[in-house]
Design a protein that fits this description.
By secondary structure, the protein is an alpha/beta fold. Helices cover 36% and strands 14% of the residues.
């Protein structure tokens, strides 16, 4: 029997990841609606681009302690509690540089935030294309021990020296997929892979090509 299962949803996007005080209540209402949908669809988790409260910014020189994001941490904790009410998990996604995260939010940083919040229903979401923008691609291949909190992976390819989020189909960029999947096997990752590619590529022929490529490169050697 063929069917469709919705594994994850994405929380409401905020421009440049800055949550202004005037939008705070409305954002939480939109997030709650997202949780309601996730519950109805029987999803497992909600992916979130961590919003930073207006006026706060990560103090990089603290390496980083996240103490400068006091109100933002409270917001993220509150969102985790809301998601838990609907029996959902939250997956914090690594991000390219933007106004809220001027230096970007790396996968390791999301891992540290999850550990700091100490909530049972939160983990991380690895976006490979965002790693390219942050020039963190080599880190992916050496930090797979972070996979213990990894709920999902957004799969796309990129170009080493590109400063933009390319979202290329897997196999059409520079990422070392075979090595990456070998490491995921090593750390026994069994979560989902969400393929994200730019719309000019999203035809049936290419979807089949992506599936075959990922299947070939994910097989144990």
């Amino acid at each position: 029997m063929i069917g469709v299962r919705i594994r994850s949803l994405h929380a409401p996007f905020i421009k440049d990841c800055v949550l202004y005080q005037k939008d705070y209540i409305n954002y939480l209402k939109r997030f709650e609606e997202c949780c309601r949908k996730g519950c109805i669809y029987n999803a497992s988790y909600i992916v979130i681009h961590l919003p930073v409260i207006e006026g706060e910014q990560l103090a990089i020189e603290t390496n980083p302690s996240f103490e400068s994001l006091k109100n933002s941490l409270l917001l993220w904790s509150k969102m985790a509690e809301e998601a838990n009410h609907y029996r959902l998990k939250l997956a914090f996604e690594n991000l390219p540089p933007n106004e809220g995260w001027p230096q970007g939010c790396t996968w390791k940083m999301t891992y540290q935030i999850v550990k700091m919040l100490k909530k049972n229903n939160i983990g991380t979401c690895l976006d490979i294309s965002h790693c390219f923008v942050n020039k963190q691609t080599s880190a992916i291949l050496t930090e797979c021990e972070l996979a213990d909190l990894l709920l999902g992976i957004h799969v796309s390819d990129g170009i080493w020296d590109s400063k933009r989020d390319c979202h290329l189909p897997p196999g059409e960029g520079d990422f070392l997929w075979n090595t990456f999947f070998s490491l995921l096997h090593k750390f026994e990752y069994n979560g989902s892979l969400v393929v994200e590619v730019n719309t000019p590529y999203s035809d049936g022929h290419l979807i089949k090509k992506i599936f075959c490529y990922l299947k070939e490169n994910s097989v144990r050697r």
